[in-house]
Amino acid sequence: MVSQTRPRRRADAERSIARIVAAARARLTEDPDATIDAIAAEAGVGRMTLYGHFKTRADLVEAALSAALEAGEAVLAGVDLEGDPQEALDRLLASSWSLVAESAALLEAAQGVLPSGRLRELHADPAKRVEDLLRRGQREGVFRTDLPLPWLVSVIQYVLHGAAEQLRAGNLTEANVAETAVATVNAVLRPPA
């Protein structure tokens, strides 16, 4: 009977953790300063249960950001990056700006509690995908080569985060935010005349 109880507790714990992480993603996306109490309430658990799984707010924020990045990675892995590098980048940007919109608020929450090295580590896979695509486009003469590649990757991230911020501020709409972000990135990457 003891062996049956342990797996059940494990399954219950996993469901509880999943609810807490989902609640943290939702609340921190709405408000990067959301309290532990608000997150626990959203998850339908008490503070003690939450702290039983996540010892600190930083642990919870990291779990929420990691979950968002994992979900984003699943979406972005399905984007066709073959063919013309410019068209591939347009597809990638159109698919990723809404993911950035969610993770921007989570990132804001994380910046207050996680070291910058850890944040870079969590964003390494999406950054590598963009970097590889830019490198291919540079080799093919589609993207500029007069600026450092890491800088261009950062500029793309800044543009996407800026688009998400402008959407939240009401300066862009759902209808034009992706188009605006893609046009801005394309202008930045165009080789100088």
Automatic annotation (TrEMBL):
> Where's the HTH tetR-type domain?
14-72
Origin: domain of life: Bacteria
DNA-binding segment(s): 35-54
InterPro entries recorded for this chain? Homeodomain-like_sf (IPR009057), HTH-type_TetR-like_transc_reg (IPR050109), HTH_TetR (IPR001647), Tet_transcr_reg_TetR-rel_C_sf (IPR036271)
Which GO MF terms are attached to this record? DNA-binding transcription factor activity; transcription cis-regulatory region binding
Q: Mind listing the UniProt keywords for this protein, alphabetically?
A: DNA-binding, Transcription, Transcription regulation
Coiled-coil annotated residue ranges, if any: none
Q: Under which name does UniProt file this protein?
A: Transcriptional regulator, TetR family
- The source organism is Glycomyces sambucus
